[in-house]
Amino acid sequence: MNIAIIGNGNIGSGLAGALGKTDHKVTLLGKGDDLAAVAAAEIVILATPYGTVNELVGTVDFTGKTVIDVSNPVNADFSGLQVGHATSAAEEIAAALPGASVVKAFNTIFAQHYATGLQIDGRPLQTFVASDDAVARERVKKLATEIGLVTVDAGPLKNARYLEPLGFLNIQFGYVLGQGTGIAPQWLAAA
Ligand SMILES: NC(=O)c1ccc[n+]([C@@H]2O[C@H](COP(=O)([O-])OP(=O)(O)OC[C@H]3O[C@@H](n4cnc5c(N)ncnc54)[C@H](OP(=O)(O)O)[C@@H]3O)[C@@H](O)[C@H]2O)c1
Question: Which residues' Cβ are closer than 6 Å to ligand 1?
Answer without folding.
Answer: 6-12, 30-31, 47-50, 52, 55, 70-72, 107, 109-111
